[in-house]
Design goal:
The complex is a heterotrimer of chains A (about 325), B (about 260) and C (about 290).
Chain A: H1 3-36, H2 40-63, H3 72-88, H4 94-116, H5 121-141, H6 143-146, H7 165-188, H8 190-200, H9 202-207, H10 212-238, H11 248-261, H12 267-282, H13 287-304, H14 308-321
Helix pairs in contact in A: 2-7, 2-10, 2-11, 2-12, 3-4, 3-5, 3-10, 4-10, 11-12, 11-14
Chain B: E1 3-14, E2 17-28, E3 32-36, H1 43-51, E4 58-63, E5 66-67, H2 73-79, E6 81-83, H3 96-103, H4 105-108, H5 112-116, H6 122-139, H7 155-168, E7 173-177, H8 185-200, E8 204-208, H9 212-218, E9 221-226, E10 229-234, H10 236-240, H11 243-250
Parallel strand pairs in B: 3-8, 3-9, 6-7, 7-8
Antiparallel strand pairs in B: 1-2, 1-4, 4-5, 9-10
Chain C: H1 4-35, H2 42-58, H3 64-87, H4 94-116, E1 130-133, E2 136-139, H5 140-162, H6 164-174, H7 176-181, H8 186-211, H9 220-233, H10 238-259, H11 261-278
Antiparallel strand pairs in C: 1-2
Helix pairs in contact in C: 1-5, 1-6, 1-8, 1-9, 1-10, 2-3, 2-4, 2-8, 2-9, 3-8, 5-6, 5-8, 6-8, 9-10, 10-11
Classes of the chains: A mainly alpha (about 325), B alpha/beta (about 260), C mainly alpha (about 290).
């Protein structure tokens, strides 16, 4: 074997090993840092990042099919309210509330999905926006169940253990990692490839035997269930919810996370969640300026780097790591 | 010989425009049938109606003895009825290999969740499909470009890739929409050779095109559409010297078309 | 309940709402019909119109009927700058353009918050008189709003039907390729359409500010109403925007008086979903190719 070939093989083995090492190191950092850096505030923010990553990743599934939903927060609200009501009013355990929340969100998605997903492009955007508004109105008007505009107070933590911020962080982290692994599996599977085909050309995908409506509906339901879980987890974390927690600006947030982070890879929504949760907290006194900057970032990114920050980072990396030709062999 | 495809009384209007007007024809198993006619004759619409991409206003389609009118395209693909497109016939962002793999989707899709979660039981299925993908690429002369993004293929290559994608679903009947459009004479010959080879393997073909040289040499039978209606059908020699066909294409001239 | 004073109020309010909704929706549908962009920042232009009118009244002491058109021109003029910077790269690219306008909307709203503060304020009322004709009560401010809106809508109708630019806009909205083949300058048409659309939105904002109140966040309501109106009337259809505005305005006025505001909101949103599913092109629109 030539020297170059054996170097090549060693290189690949090294990459494999380094990937595992990096994953292990990352896991260690994610799990271990709260034990080293004591800071309740940081743990609080980290928990929020994990929770929002779940919702952002779930919207990502829909976006990868080429559909834009502006009503995603409605499903989060269904999860949150279902869980909160069942636990506070009916005294059910948290786990039941969590799964009921996901189930209710999933059921609505399953019911209207087959109808709404026949619409394409801007019509789908408008109808999901309308859906979000209707659900929010239900939260506001159905006072006997949801408490109306005042919301629901004193939602209990899942268990006394989870009154500790660090414990909740681990719960949120575990949930986010599970969701991330699941979504990654989905997106790298044959279904993920079918979704890419659908996004690029529906007529061609259909002509290749891909059951478009079926895949769209199932993904829509999956996304609803996942963000419903976020709703429930978040409700029992912040311990107060109101219709304002699930309005249009929340749906927009998920979209912005995806666009800024990157629409073409699962790392996008994760990065987006990190940015859009951490930055507002860090720049506490500068809320308005932040939003102005987000708006500008949105415009610039969608214009020049449609692949988002992930794409941007990849390009920079590629540029930096490009082999430099020094002399000619 | 059995009829693999039977069209009866197919019609489709778009507003005031009658794109397809009560056409009936058939394709025998193992045949290569050409579908020709001047622009606007309704050929592509007819293909869309047969493949399920559009719903006919009237009429029926029978495929391998089974009525399939109004079924969505992906169901028809499973039954072995496949079409290609004039434009957007490949996935630009994917590699050539992945493009063909997408065409084989009906083979790898058993049910949603086993496909989505890539369970170990599917590994064999996937491997087999990748192998078949590579075989098709080799058969069509695209093996060298397998890992290139489809957007980097020359126009002729993309057309061939479109045929490869259609082949990947193991069709019984392939409907090709203008496979020779925009190709050089060499490339046209290559496409014709591919179609013949595919036909030898047992696939029936319905091909729409304007290239009369290729159609006459390739097809067992030709069907002529004009203004959405059936004008005539028959063997290539017959059709190309039929004065009505010549008139439809060229106005009143007395030369057989295709030179 | 069905007394003349009550009914006349409802009808008057219905017309007022219809007029304002139509003004905003017309611009929105113009931008979608011609440039194929869902303008999420449309409500913000209304908001800017309202604020500019406020400052002209407050600071420069102008009469309302002078401030209103001036403010609208100013906003529309400023809009042209934004058109070149933000909108132009996205024409005919629906979803990307939508996201860009979402970004723009955020920039405008929060810049307004930085400049003006986030609180609501009311602008000095220019019309406090109340006329009565028999049992019918006609507040002067609503009459003024109706008059201005009627003039603007009439002018727009003349413009879009009888002027060359108006015709160009209608042709481009129908079919861009044919329009360019006819020698129509698409770029100039886009700019003109954007100017008109923004002018109407700013006008509506000034009227809204007169009737209700002013805040950087007030743009959301006109935007949502625009959605509803154009879905009712058909995305991209100009007569549809007028028809949809009338239907929505009257409907809201009647239903909210007798059944309350929330029922009216539910009903109109519900109607939107049903329409989008059954007939996405609206009552008067063309089916998407």
């Amino acid at each position: 074997m030539s020297e170059q070939a054996s170097v090549g093989i060693r290189f690949h083995v090294a990459i494999r090993r380094s990937k595992l090492l990096r994953a292990g190191a990352a896991l260690l950092v994610l799990v271990g840092w709260p034990l080293v850096i004591r800071g309740n505030y940081l743990v609080y923010i980290a928990t929020l990042v994990c929770l929002y990553a779940i919702g952002a990743m779930s919207l990502h599934l829909i976006l990868r099919m080429g559909q834009v939903s502006l009503g995603h927060a409605a499903f989060m609200g269904l999860g949150g309210y279902t869980s909160a009501v069942l636990v506070t009013a009916a005294d059910l355990p948290f786990v039941l509330g969590l799964f009921a929340g996901g189930a209710v969100a999933g059921m609505l998605a399953g019911l209207i999905g087959p109808i709404l997903l026949r619409l394409k492009g801007v019509y789908f955007v408008l109808v999901t926006f309308t859906l979000g508004e209707i659900v929010r109105l239900v939260f506001v008007e159905w006072i006997s169940v949801t408490g109306g505009s005042s919301g629901i107070y004193q939602i209990p933590a899942p268990a006394p253990l989870f009154l500790d911020l660090t414990a909740y962080y681990y719960l949120a982290l575990a949930a986010a990692m599970l969701v991330g692994l699941f979504c990654n599996r989905l997106l790298s599977s044959d279904i993920g490839r079918a979704m890419q085909a659908m996004r690029e050309s529906e007529s061609l995908a259909e002509a290749n035997g891909i059951p478009i409506l079926r895949i769209k509906v199932v993904m829509f339901v999956v996304a609803a269930v996942l963000v419903g879980f976020q709703g429930s987890l978040e409700a029992h974390f912040i311990r107060y919810i109101s219709p304002l927690s699930y309005d249009f600006s929340e749906s927009l947030r998920f979209l912005v996370m995806n666009v800024i982070g990157g629409l073409n890879s699962l790392a996008g929504p994760i990065l987006g969640a990190l940015f859009l949760v951490v930055l507002p907290e860090m720049l506490r006194g500068w809320v308005e300026i932040q939003w102005v900057l987000y708006g500008i970032a949105l415009i610039l990114i969608i214009r020049y780097v449609p692949g988002g920050l992930v794409d941007f980072a990849a390009r920079i990396l590629a540029f930096l790591m490009a082999p430099r030709q020094v002399g000619v062999s | 010989m059995t009829r693999i495809l039977e069209i009866a009384g197919l019609s489709k209007s778009f507003g005031a425009l009658k794109a397809v007007d009560d056409i009936s024809f058939h394709v025998e198993e193992g045949e290569i049938v050409g579908l020709i006619g001047p622009n606007g004759a309704g050929k592509t619409t007819a293909i869309s109606l047969i493949s399920g991409a559009k719903r006919p206003d009237a009429g029926g389609v029978v495929f391998r003895g089974e009525p399939v009118t109004n079924l969505p395209p992906h169901r028809l693909v499973r039954k072995g009825l496949v079409r290609t497109f004039q434009a957007t016939n490949v996935y630009q962002s994917m590699s050539v290999r992945e493009n063909v793999y997408c065409g084989a989707f009906p083979a790898v899709y058993r049910d949603f969740w086993s496909a989505a979660l890539a369970t170990p039981s599917r590994r064999e299925l996937q491997h087999g499909t990748w192998r078949r993908t590579d075989r098709i690429l080799a058969q069509l002369g695209l093996a060298a470009q397998a890992d290139l993004p489809a957007s980097q293929l020359p126009y002729g290559g993309q057309k061939t890739l479109g045929v490869a994608i259609a082949l990947a679903s193991e069709p019984r009947l392939m409907m090709l929409d203008e496979p020779a459009a925009g190709l050089s004479a060499e490339e046209v010959d290559h496409v014709a050779e591919v179609i013949r080879a595919v036909n030898r393997d047992g696939v029936s073909v319905l091909v729409v095109d304007h290239n009369m040289r290729m159609i006459s040499a390739l097809c067992h039978r030709i069907i002529v559409l004009h203004h959405g209606a059936l004008l005539t059908e028959g063997a290539p020699q017959q059709v190309t010297s039929d004065p009505r066909v010549i008139e439809a294409y060229l106005g009143k001239r007395h030369e057989p078309i295709g030179g | 309940m069905f007394t003349v004073p009550v009914l006349s109020q409802i009808v008057l309010n219905g017309f007022v709402l219809a007029a304002i909704y139509t003004l905003v929706a017309l611009g929105f549908t113009l931008i979608f019909g011609i440039m194929r962009i869902i303008n999420f920042a449309h409500g913000e232009f209304a908001m800017l119109g309202g604020f500019l009118v406020f400052f002209m009244l407050q600071v420069a002491n102008m009469p309302f009927f002078v401030a209103l058109p001036l403010a609208s021109f100013a906003v529309a003029g400023g809009g042209l700058v934004l058109e070149a910077l933000v909108y132009r790269p996205f024409y005919q690219k629906e979803l990307q353009g939508m996201i860009a306008t979402i970004g723009l909307s955020t920039v405008i709203v929060y810049s307004a918050v930085l400049l003006f503060g986030s609180h609501q304020r009311s602008i000095p009322a220019s019309f406090t008189a109340i006329f009565t004709i028999g049992p019918v009560i006609l507040p002067a401010d609503r009459l003024a709003v109706l008059t201005v809106a009627a003039i603007a809508l009439a002018a727009f109708y003349v413009f879009i039907t009888f002027t060359r630019i108006g015709l160009a806009m209608r042709v481009v909205a129908q079919d861009l390729e044919i329009a360019e083949a006819q020698g129509i300058n698409a770029r100039a048409t886009y700019r003109a359409a954007f100017f008109v659309a923004t002018f109407l939105a700013a006008l509506a904002g000034g009227l809204l500010a007169q009737l209700y109140s002013l805040s950087p966040f007030m743009g959301t309501l006109p935007l949502v109403k625009s959605f509803i109106v154009v879905i009712l009337g058909g995305l991209g259809s100009i007569p549809g925007a007028a028809a949809g505005g009338l239907v929505l305005g009257m409907f809201e006025s009647f239903v909210s008086t007798f059944y309350g505001l929330s029922v009216a909101q539910f009903a109109s949103l519900g109607a939107v979903i049903v329409l989008l599913v059954l007939r996405p092109e609206g009552l008067l629109g063309r089916a998407e190719r």
